[in-house]
Predict the structure.
Amino acid sequence: MADKIYKLIFEKDDGSEAEVQFTAPQGPQGEKGADGTSGKDGFSPTVYVTKSGKETEIHINAVNGPQSVTILDGADGKDGTNGVSATHSWNGTTLTITSASGTSSANLKGEKGDTGDSYTLTEADKDDIAALAATLLKENGVIGVVDENNNIIVSGNLADGTYNVKYEMADGSTIDIGNLVLSDKPTYKNLADPTSADWKTGYRLNSSGSVSVAEGITATNYVPVKNGDVVRIKGMNLTTHNTHFLKADKTLTAYGAGNLTNSTFAATDISATTTGGQFTVNNAEVAWVRFSGALNGTANDVIITINEPIE
C-alpha cells in the first residue's frame, strides 16, 4: 500500500503562515462495515400553470408539499401606427391594387377560348327578344306585341313605319331577327280569323256539331283552348245561338252545343251579352271552341282572345 501524505498549515496573527508535510504509512484495510438502512422512496413533483387576467401562477406539488409562485404580465406596449387601407380599381380586365407596400396591377383576362358552335335563334328566342323590346319600349310610352307573322308590333308615340331589328350579341356582332312594324294595332292577339275556311257567313252552329244555314248569323273559325283558359269575345251577340265545345278531333264533347249562358258543363264564370262575353274553360276534354251569332259590326270587328283582356 502507498503511504498517505498529509499537510498541516499554521497561520499567525500577522497573516503569515507555514506549511508542514509529513508522510504516514497506509494502515491495513478495515473490515467491511454493516449495510446502512434503505433510503426513503423518491418523489416525482408535478407542475401546472393557471392564468387569470394579467397574473400567471405556477403550481408545484413537491415532496415537501404544494408550492406556487405568481408572475405578473409585462406592461402593455405602445400603440402601433395606423395602417393604410388597401384600395382597388378596374380598367377593363385589369385590376389595380394600392396598399401600404405600393401599387400593383394585373390583367386578369384569360386566353381566348375556341369558337363555339353557331346558334340559330328559335321562334321562342325571337318571342323573348320581342317581349323584352316591348318592355323597354313601354318605358318610353310605347307598347309592343308580336303578331302571327313574328313581326314586332309597337303602338305609341313613335312614327309609323317598318324597321329592321337587329339583336346585338355580347361580342358586338348582330343577328337580324326581323322587322319592327310601328302601327296603331292593339297589344292582344286576336284569334278571330274571317279569312279562315271555317269562318261561315250566313250560318249558325247546330246541335250536331256542324253548321246550318241562318241568314244574318256568322259561325267563327275554331279557336284552340285548354282547361283553365280565359276566353273573351267581342263584336258578336252570344245570347241567341250555339257555342261549340269540342275535343281535339273537333267532335263535340258531351252536351257540347248550346247557348253560352247554359254551358256550365264546360265553363265557369260565364258572361254572355249581345256584344260579346267571356268564360273560363272548365273541362279537360275541351280543345277547341267555336261561336255563332249576329255580328255587331263587320267580321273584321270580331275579337277573340285567350288569357288576354280586350282593351
